[in-house]
Amino acid sequence: MKLLHSYSALRFALVLIAILAQCVALSNFPLLVIAGTLSALSWYVTEGPRGKSIPPWVARLLVLVALLYAMLDAIGPVERLPLVLGQFVVWLTVIKLYGKRTVENEAQLLLLGLLLMTVGALYATDFLFGAMLVIWSGFAAWVLLLYQLHHGMEKMREERFLAVPAGHPTPWTRPVTGLQVRKAFRSMASLFLVVGLLGSFLFFVFTPREKFDVIHSFSATSENALERMPLSPGVDESESNRQVMTIYLEDMSGNSVRMPKGLRLRGSVLDAYKGRGVWASGSHLKSTVETVEGEFAPLTMVGDGSANLVMTVVFQYPSSQIYALYRPVGIETTPPSRLTQNLANTTIKLALGAEPLQRYQLAVDFTATISSPLSNRRYRYYNEQVHALALSLLQKNAIEFNDGAITPDESERIAKVFENYLRSREFTYSLDATFFTPKERIEMELDNDPIASFILNHKRGHCEYFAAAMAAMCDTVDLPARVVTGYYVDRWDEVSNSYIVFQRDAHAWVEVEVEPMAWVAYDPTPSSQDAPTWQQEMTFMQRVRFEWQQWELAWQSSVISYDSLAQKKLIGFLDPFWRSHVDNMTGTFKTFYASVVKWFDIGAGGRVWIDLVMGAAVLAGFIILLLRWRSRRIKNVLTLSKKLDEQVPVASVEFFATLQRVLLKHGTRRPKYVPAQTWIESLGLEEQALELATSLTESYYQIRFGDYRPSRTKRLELMQTVRKFESLVQKGKI
Predict the structure, then answer these.
(1) Cα first-last separation, the chain
(2) What share of the chain is helix, strand, coil (3-state, %, to 5)?
(3) Dist CA 678 CA 692 (whole Å)
(4) What whole-number distance in Å separates Cα of residue 233 and Cα of residue 458?
(5) Structural domains in the chain?
(6) Beta bridge partners of 330
(7) 502 and 469 in contact (C-beta within 8 Å)?
(8) Distance between CA 567 and CA 549 in Å, rounded?
(9) 369 touches 519 (CB < 8 A)
């Protein structure tokens, strides 16, 4: 059967895609290389004339080793359990690929492939995995139908082999098929694919994920604005291109705004040195703000002026951190929340116990100078050698420094000297901590002053080292300074008119008090942070990478972040009529869903099983409707009454309904008042076609008007006779 010639290769490709997709979901490149290579080699070892396989006892031993490794790996946070399960299933599938090729083994491989994609969908958020999942789903519809044919053929050959007496050669078995098998198979596979994708899409649209979805429990927005910043030589900074948030800027007329320079998104302000390289937040003058959906709640930040920008922040995953341009004067959150504003350093946080936010808006009075009512001078940095270096730098730049008050002009000049020194060629910016030898790492870990070691000795590190160093040098000359952590971004997307913030954009810089209550930002990191690098001409590979990131953005914002709010917008966009009804529809479903979860007392994890049960129920309902439609179609063709239907099974007379449809395609319809046999004889068929049609009619009479009930084998033979008749009709023998 030519249709099955490609089955082995397609089945192997389907399992291989599932393994690679799971490795992508785990973001485990070593596993991708090792498992992918071993899987590819299995085709060379087990397929073809070699047909080699590992003994069953070896396979069991390897499975036991993989299980023990998974159990050891599972010791830790409970959030890692799905990841451990995914890795274990990868190894289980690789081992299975080296097993003996049997129908049962192939069925298990297909089930393992399905399990790999299902487990990966629990925690994967990458666009690449999503694309592979869609491709795999369509591919699976084709391969699973081929497996059904393959299973039937193997079963038939096995039964024939058992039926032949011992010592006699078993004749080659070829399945009997009708005309246009490939066309019929493609039609059936396409139907399964369309129905599956359409059902999945509708289920996705009408059952959005909420904030406490399973995936959100395994993923979270990285917080790069912590209240403490310890310097550690053994920790690399992230260069991840994973998207964190999207920033939209508009003027008060609603027009998109692109700033001439990059955005400094302030998160935390660290103005107290706690020793041993740790900077922390030390100034507190807090008040609570209650937000209301649909309007800006006023913020009592120090400064004059009204809002001139509206800043909208959309996180990839809910976050507890508020990032803002200076000076925020109002905030609106979705949903309403409780916030804490710190007037001492002009930062905003979510109040204790408040739910993380996916989206918020800020009304901003944008200004370069930051106003703070006070600065904490209790916890200051001081080191004799760093102080001496700072004084020598000021002398080289002809800045007379006395212990008395510093004028605003002197403050700016001093800050600029320190900034230029740290950005000079004496220092190297690096996110990689491996340049330190193990001995140097131990010494720095035990060092009470890693800032001095950085300034005087190593002179290499990431942005936190440079920001801490400049703040420390300012402290030694009694110039108030503080470290600010957050993000710096100038990556502008022309399509969405927004700034795209990646994890790699996390940054730390310094704010210096140039005059009382007036702070100015300085960036001592010797990198291109201040240059609009993403506004320069991009190379071909940079353009490809950027386009991929746009697809990743669309996937994250449209699919991964799909919730009830997005559902309302989508349905409202498709048909405004649904706007007034969507709340009732989703509310009823949520109430029923919550009551089921509460009644079974299964918690958030059990929702996955409820989704599977509901999906199985929908699929079963669809199959029942399909069978009923098929039965009704046969009854309509044969004009079977309801009473007769109770006596004659519809499946037994399906062959005669097919015969009538074949003749109908060629323009011949049987009148209801003409008996079947009379009608057949009046068609003027050639001898061979007439013989087949008469035989089918006699069988139909025996079933409908007699007690004859054909077996399944006999029904298949009758359908084969119909196909032979159809081939004669197509050849013009009518």
Answers:
(1) 30
(2) 55, 15, 30
(3) 15
(4) 11
(5) 2-163 (no CATH), 224-533 (no CATH), 627-730 (1.20.120)
(6) 298, 363
(7) no
(8) 24
(9) yes
Q: What is the DSSP letter of 641?
A: -
The span from the CA of 114 to the CA of 11, in Å, is 12
Measured distance CA(269)–CA(493) in Å, rounded: 29
| Site of tokens 């199985």 | 616
Burial-class residue 371 by CB neighbours within 10 Å (0-12, 13-18, 19+): middle
Q: How many helices (H) and strands (E) does the chain have?
A: 22, 19
**Residue of 63, 54, 139, 140 whose CA lies nearest to 98:** 54
What is the widest separation between alpha-carbon atoms in the chain?
122
Contact criterion met (CB below 8 Å) for 311 and 248: yes
Per DSSP, the residues of 387-415 read: HHHHHHHHHHTT----SSPPPHHHHHHHH
Question: How many CB atoms are located within 10 Å of the residue 698 CB?
Answer: 12
Q: What is the dihedral sign for C-alpha 627, 628, 633, 636? A: positive
* CA 429/CA 508 separation, integer angstroms: 13
Taken in order 493, 358, 265, 255, is the CA torsion positive or negative? positive
Question: Tens of pLDDT along 325-377?
Answer: 888 889 998 888 889 888 877 888 888 888 888 889 999 888 877 777 655 56
Contacts of 6 (CB under 8 A, 6+ apart): 146
Handedness of CA 229, 230, 233, 237 (dihedral sign): negative
Whose tokens are 């109770």? That residue is 646
pLDDT digits (tens, 9 = 90+) for 384-397: 999 999 999 998 98
Q: What is the pLDDT of residues 384-435, one digit of tens each?
A: 999 999 999 998 988 876 666 788 888 999 999 999 999 998 888 877 655 5
Pairing between strand 263-270 and 506-515? unpaired
**30-83 pLDDT, tens digit each:** 999 999 999 999 888 887 656 788 888 999 999 999 999 988 888 877 767 888
Residue type for position 605: G
Q: CA nearest 417: which of 403, 399, 444?
A: 399
DSSP string covering 307-350: --EEEEEEEEEEESB--B-S-EEEEEEES--EEEEETTTTEEEE
Alpha helices in 483-581 (DSSP H): 540-555, 564-574
For residue 279, list its beta bridge partners: 229, 273
Relative orientation angle of helices 7-26 and 127-163, to the nearest 10 degrees: 150
* Both tokens assigned to 379: 């916890």
- Rounded to whole angstroms, the Cα distance separating 518 from 374 reads 10
Cβ contacts of 542 within 8 Å, gap of 6 or more:
none
Give the Cα separation of 347 and 345 in Å (integer): 6
Token reading at 239 = 């260069």
Residue burial 270-297, b: 16+ Cβ < 10 Å; e: rest: bbbbeeebbbbbbbeeeeebebeeeebb
Instruction: Give 666's contacts (C-beta < 8 A, 6+ positions apart).
Output: 729, 734
How far CA 130 is from CA of 21, 28, 145, in Å, comes to 9, 16, 23
Distance of CA 404 to the CA centre of its chain: 58
Residue 351 makes CB contacts below 8 A (sequence gap 6+) with: 288, 337, 338, 339, 340
Angle between helices 29-46 and 81-97 in degrees, nearest 10: 20
Provide the token pair at 164.
């032949």
Phi-psi region of 153 (alpha: psi -120 to 50; beta: other; left: phi over 0): alpha
Task: Indicate the burial class of 301 (C-beta count within 10 angstroms; 0-12, 13-18, 19 or more).
Answer: buried
Length of the chain: 734
In one-letter notation, the amino acid at residue 86 is G
